[in-house]
Amino acid sequence: MNQELFDSVTELIKNPKAYPAFPGTANNSYKCKHCQHICRVSGGSKIYIKCGILEHRWTNGVGTDIKANSPACSFFQLN
Ligand code: SF4
Fold first, then answer.
1. What is the C-alpha separation between 67 and 69, in angstroms, rounded?
2. Residue 34: which domain range?
3. Are 18 and 61 in contact (CB under 8 A)?
4. Which of 35, 50, 60, 68 has the fewest beta carbons under 10 Å from its own?
């Protein structure tokens, strides 16, 4: 497992409800930042990055934040 995927897996363990499928399961070289489902939500002076597929599960906390550099999951759609 490469470092990037390892970091994403670590993130997934911290935020299991943030990703609709396991990071890296798109089996390509794209990342969340290339996907049309990535959402940048402003809250106060900060921007929070979340996956739009799981909008119904979003919280106001970091528990549903994703990493823009996570390897794409199987729900990936090129932006
Ligand atoms: S690849 Fe797309 S669908 Fe998958 S978690 Fe990232 S933003 Fe969401």
1. 5
2. 3-64
3. no
4. 60
Q: What is the pLDDT of residues 19-77, one digit of tens each?
A: 999 888 999 999 999 999 999 999 888 999 999 999 999 988 888 999 999 999 999 99
- Tell me if 44 is assigned to some domain: yes
Q: How far is the CA of 47 from the centre of ligand 1 (A)?
A: 17
Report d(CA 29, CA 31) in Å as an integer.
7
Instruction: Report how many domains make up the chain.
Output: 1
Pocket perturbation via mutation, ligand 1, pick of 11, 12, 29, 32 by most ligand atoms within 8 A of CB: 32
Q: Look at residue 40 and tell me if it is in a domain.
A: yes
Residue 59 lies in a domain: yes
> Closest ligand 1 atom to the C-alpha of 39?
7
